[in-house]
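Trying the structure run again after the queue cleared.
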Amino acid sequence: MANKSHLKFLSEQQLSEIKNFRYNYGFEKNKDEDNAPKDYVRLATSFRADLEKLDSDLKAKYNAKDRSLDIPYDIDYVQITFQDQFVISKYFQDYYNNFGLEATTFYDFAKKGLFAVIDRDKFKTFITNVHNFIEYELDGNQDAKYSKYVKYISGFKLLRASDILKFTLEDIGDIVYLSLMDLPLDDTVKRQIVQSLIVYFEMNGIVHKYDTENDRIELQNPTPEQIQKIVENFDIIESATCSAFTTVRPSEFNTVERQFGFTIQNADEDLPIVGIIDTGISNQTALAPLIINDTTFTLAGNPLIDQAGRRSGLHYLGHGTAVAGLVALGKENHKNNFNGNILADAKLLSIKISDNGYGYISEVDLLTMLYDVKAKYPDIRLFTLTTCYCNFMYKNEAFSDYTYSLDKFAYDTNSLIFICTGNNDNCINENTGYDLSYFHGDHTNLSTPADSLNNLTVGAAADNLKDGIFLGIADSREFPALYTRKGHIDLSVIYNDAKKTNKNYFKPDIIESGGDVGYCSENVLDWMDEPALTLLSARPEIGVTPDVGTSFATPLVANLAAKIIKNYPALSNESVKALIINGASLNLIRFAPNVSKLINRVAGNGLVDEFKSLYSDENSATLILEDTIENGKIKIYPINFPRYLVEDDLGKKHGILKVTATLCFKFLPLKNNQLSYNPIHMAFSIFKNHSAEDIMKPDEELKSKLRSNLSWSENGRYVSKPLPYSNTQKISLNVNTDDLNNEANTFKLAIHAKLSEQIVGGIPEDYPEDFPFSIVLTIEETLKNSTGKLYNEIQLVNHVEAIQDISIDTGLEAEALDI
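Done. Tokens:
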């Protein structure tokens, strides 16, 4: 079966309609009282305790202040927890005007807000309202009057120094980050406090870097006493963090020491360059001809030396070198143990951030270095980042400054970073076998920056790229490995209504082969050679070494991306991402009922299918739509199907085709509001052969859905209390002959977009209003006897073109990879 080029829509010709979009498919309840508790006595009792604690915390705060410091303002911050989401567009100004409270940031998808007490006299009004509510409910004072807003609150507390510190001072590292408060209505006050903070740094010899782009300050080697004084006195710090990262697993595998060499046949070819953000790449290995000879980009020594990873005798086996080998050489060369004709898929730029694979890095310097890489090598589009922080993210924890920086970098520079979820090395000590219920624990959550949305997050499947009997502990090689980490977002604890959710809001995006753990004895797990991957070592005299991890699953996906770019260099990064996700599948990964709700959080969209991401064939056509859409618009693209599907005897009439479609877009992230971090609601679906006006009508008036369960990919009807928006969405549809007959062989692909109104300080004036997107649509025959017609026939009835002239034997078989 010939491998064929994917097809690309000629978007301007295929487009049939552009209209203003109307949300006519249902409306939310907007009354704040809907979720207010009925037991006001209990709430009043809780408020009384909150007031007492607030008073005692305020006294403790000011007793701890050092009045010898010259600081122009003292600001108190109150964290308020609400009964439901806080409607920023409606109540932001009310809280400021009535209570002297300026919202600075929101957590738990706007169910918690941090407010600065900007006007102390007005804040007394807030306290009086709470007192009156308590008197009314507990003391029976019917004359006590209070604001209706009080009943929408479930609790409040002062932000204390202990809340700001996100680590114990005993565990302070080389680098500490101070995230600054956002005061959109009082920026002058903020600037004056920050200036006094910088004076304090200079007077005390604290090395610092003010990252104005991300509104944070990096401190190098501060003492615990200095950090304590800063968070107690300078009321402009939202959080102080100190996070160590790691790539290194302490356990050791057996290492076979032997000479190992091979020659890469196409090292002189013009291949995509991938930036390897890691521990360096050894240029003393067979990868040398593929490595760009540039030692510029490093935070820790020569980037062409790799002395990290596990130890063998007196030497270390490397980490970045193994990652680079997977990026450049991919699955097949590793499966073949580097025998035969070795062809590379990518060249390599070493971006060294650590010499030993653990410790602390300067995020500020790393981001500066990445922007410098893009300035020097603007054609580099792909990067791997397989170093995550050691600490897991708590359930529904907000985006870190590090994640924000990487998402913004991806947006600014047309880049795509492949990030691992991080490894949970404790899995071998906490299990006696393969138990997916283990992932119910929060300690199995991913580590930052794996929560990045503009980039692609990769978890590990148990597969080890070896044919024959699978010797890992997983139920099957396609299943997620026990050490991989799951997404930390659980919207079910945020929204009381089970129907209010976003089924596309999860991480990781996909899983790929990372190797598995094994049984060293009955009921005892360990890192074993047999189920591990075989990887390139940084030591030429050793050659290869066994290892496992999400660090090694991730570069395999970057290798696939490099192949896609090599085949289709004009495609956008969003199309590359969509092709990978659209090809992935959960078909061979079945979770038991007690863990079924975790499947996307553990395995994402499933295991990567290299063939489907790279090629179409006679019976399966992948069509790519790249276009832009304006805020508030809906666009319609007809999808026309060949006549043979209704005229020929196909042997069946139900499920003759399967359609799988994925939408991807990038966005400029917004800080200080987890809910509207991605402020763009974009959704798509496949409808009956109806007009835009008909598609926008409610179901009671006209049914445009092809299936009752195939609606818009994301629900945008919640305007004041929205869902968090995903920039990656996937749908699927099985097509019957009757569907085609009823719709004259044409379905309508519809997409619409709208900016959120729930943004602290409002939508920035310079925020884009025209949003590029990519939709990848795969249409495949699901017949016992395939016709061999689909690919050619679908080109005749749509405005498409083959992207490349591809008709080669890659060694990949669609049937063997049909997952």
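The longest strand covers residues 770-781. Worth checking whether this holds up in the mutant runs.
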